Here is the input.
Amino acid sequence: MFDFGKANDAQKEAIMAVEGPVLITAGSDTGKTFTLVQRTVYMIQEKNVKPEQIMIATFIEKAAKELITRITNELLDRKLAVNINKMYIGTLVIMQYSVDAMRTTKSQNFVRKDADLFIIIWKKRSPVN
Here is the structure.
């Protein structure tokens, strides 16, 4: 059984929401990073989602770096051998460049771009259990 740590009910709901993308918004110091870290680990540990199927976008580079550090530490604490470098973790600006690059390569169906808004759509490579 998954260890949710100190997650409250709303955080647990977000952590277990694995069908499609999730937008987490909240004020400062409310546990957004904790929730994203736990959700990422939950998807890998409990739902067998591959790291390359996970994308996390933030607005601030510092937050993206913090996510990488915390996810790495949580995976190590749980003794899960996962290559975090296969995940897409970064800021929306960097993601825009990455998405544009992916559009011109093999992943033609990865993104639909509408004006200044881009919507991330991913294909499931394997079923989520």
Summary: Residues 111 and 128 are 21 Å apart (CA to CA). The radius of gyration is 15 Å.
